[in-house]
From TrEMBL:
<dbReference type="InterPro" id="IPR047641">
    <property type="entry name" value="ABC_transpr_MalK/UgpC-like"/>
</dbReference>
<keyword id="KW-0067">ATP-binding</keyword>
<dbReference type="InterPro" id="IPR008995">
    <property type="entry name" value="Mo/tungstate-bd_C_term_dom"/>
</dbReference>
<keyword id="KW-0813">Transport</keyword>
<protein>
    <submittedName>
        <fullName>Carbohydrate ABC transporter ATP-binding protein, CUT1 family</fullName>
    </submittedName>
</protein>
<dbReference type="GO" id="GO:0016887">
    <property type="term" value="F:ATP hydrolysis activity"/>
</dbReference>
<dbReference type="Pfam" id="PF17912">
    <property type="entry name" value="OB_MalK"/>
</dbReference>
<comment type="similarity">
    <text>Belongs to the ABC transporter superfamily.</text>
</comment>
<dbReference type="Pfam" id="PF00005">
    <property type="entry name" value="ABC_tran"/>
</dbReference>
<dbReference type="InterPro" id="IPR003439">
    <property type="entry name" value="ABC_transporter-like_ATP-bd"/>
</dbReference>
<dbReference type="GO" id="GO:0055052">
    <property type="term" value="C:ATP-binding cassette (ABC) transporter complex, substrate-binding subunit-containing"/>
</dbReference>
<keyword id="KW-0547">Nucleotide-binding</keyword>
<dbReference type="GO" id="GO:0008643">
    <property type="term" value="P:carbohydrate transport"/>
</dbReference>
<dbReference type="InterPro" id="IPR003593">
    <property type="entry name" value="AAA+_ATPase"/>
</dbReference>
<dbReference type="InterPro" id="IPR015855">
    <property type="entry name" value="ABC_transpr_MalK-like"/>
</dbReference>
<dbReference type="GO" id="GO:0140359">
    <property type="term" value="F:ABC-type transporter activity"/>
</dbReference>
<dbReference type="InterPro" id="IPR040582">
    <property type="entry name" value="OB_MalK-like"/>
</dbReference>
């Protein structure tokens, strides 16, 4: 598969402050890739570099094989959707969709064709004669997406387009974006700090921190095989449980806890070393399933959060705070002691010093 966007050794500094550091990224043709990370990690900065809105300090950017490092945004073959709708309030939806095309001297029949197609895809045909002030937030964001869509470009860039919407509307538009990508098969680069958006939308996720990509992989790889402690902690809600201890001859020990780490090959690793074991709350079993678990413990419940489909339990396992995701109908309460089961093959093991996955 050919690459749609290639980023080579990209640096960006504002004075003495390095924002992006020797960053490399290949995005395949037709791929939906999500740049994910907390505020200040460089994800929107990287998107703006691809768009040509920021001048890079060093490195190169290629789109469809063309070096666009110093090209104007209008020459890059991209369409961009921002967090703010940025619609012209005095124009109708039709006017907003067609404005850029008129400036580009596109023939009128072609403009009408593209506007009609975008309106049909985004289901905003009844809104074409309304002005933005008469639209809901979700409708305005559809128009903003449509304005990028009519440009008929190869690469779409989305900078947190759903951040200003309420929770239900975000879910609805997320589904529509996924459907839109399945229909168009264009390359889409999407920035968000919301891991649920990343996991549900992406073909691959680039988890960023401090101007670097900490891990690039499919949602399944990012979730089940985090490359380091940062990715493991960032992905998942609630986040992964971590227990610090020592690995001694294939057995993880932390206080009174002892876990034989079956299913791992430590032959290439030093036998005795300080490590951190990570266990996702949903990989902890309770009730009747405990009897079949390779490792069984008792945990003391501190707090219970009923969430409808799930019940989140905060407990103590040995010296550590421990989160357990139980069935929504689970009948547990604070102060109780429950039996829990853990399968070491579903755990992640990290080196304490390097924080890298073992």
């Amino acid at each position: 598969m050919t690459n749609s966007v290639e980023i080579r050794n990209l640096d960006l500094s504002f004075g003495a402050v390095e924002v992006l550091r020797n960053l490399n990224l290949d995005i395949q043709d037709g791929e939906f890739i999500v740049l994910l990370g907390s505020s200040g990690c460089g994800k929107s900065t990287l998107l703006n570099c691809i768009a040509g809105l920021l001048e890079v300090t060093a490195g190169q950017i290629f789109i469809k094989g063309q070096n666009v490092t110093w090209a104007e945004p209008s020459e890059r073959g991209i369409g961009m959707v921002f967090q703010s709708y940025a619609l012209y309030p005095q124009m109708t939806v039709r006017g907003n969709l067609s404005f850029g095309l008129k400036n580009a001297k596109i023939p009128k029949p072609e403009i009408e064709k593209r506007v009609a197609r975008a309106a049909e895809i985004l289901q905003i045909e009844p809104l074409l004669n309304r002005k933005p002030g008469a639209l809901s937030g979700g409708q305005r964001q559809r128009v903003a997406i449509g304005r990028a869509l009519v440009r008929d470009v190869d690469v779409f860039l989305f900078d947190e387009p759903l951040s200003n919407l309420d929770a239900k509307l975000r879910v609805d538009l997320r589904v529509e974006l996924k459907r839109l990508h399945n229909q168009l098969q264009n390359t889409m680069i999407y920035v968000t700090h919301d891991q649920v958006e990343a996991m549900t939308l992406a073909d691959r996720i680039a988890v960023m921190k401090g101007g670097n990509i900490m891990q690039l992989g499919t949602p399944d790889e990012i979730y089940n095989q985090p490359r380091n402690l940062y990715v493991a902690d960032f992905i998942g809600s609630p986040s992964m449980n971590f227990i610090s201890g020592n690995l001694e001859s294939g057995v993880f020990k932390s206080g009174d806890l002892a876990m034989p780490m079956t299913g791992y090959d430590f032959m290439s690793q030093p036998v005795d070393r300080p490590v951190v074991i990570g266990i996702r709350p949903e990989h902890v079993v309770t009730g009747e399933l405990v009897a079949n678990a390779p490792l069984q413990f008792e945990a003391n419940i501190d707090l219970v959060e009923p969430m409808g489909s799930d019940t989140l339990v905060y407990a103590q396992l040995g010296p550590e705070n421990f989160r357990i995701r139980m069935d929504g109908q689970a009948k547990v309460k604070a102060g109780e002691t429950i039996a829990i089961g853990i399968d070491p093959s579903r755990a992640s093991l990290f080196d304490t010093k390097s924080e890298a996955r073992l």
